[in-house]
Amino acid sequence: MTGKGKKQSAAATAKQRDELLSDARKKQSVPDPLSPENLKKLGMRLGIPVALGWVIAAVIG
Asked: Cβ-count burial of 15 within 10 angstroms (0-12 exposed, 13-18 middle, 19+ buried)?
């Protein structure tokens, strides 16, 4: 009886380990740089300074 329990726990442990590894791989995946939310962030980071530069150039010129 104890042999079966150990085999089941070993199989369960291996299954849990595989699940944890697959979850870790999913978390480590590189985010898509062209996804809509990343494009919005990029637009905000670049758009505001560019707009300020245009305003300053218009005032000076």
From this structure: exposed
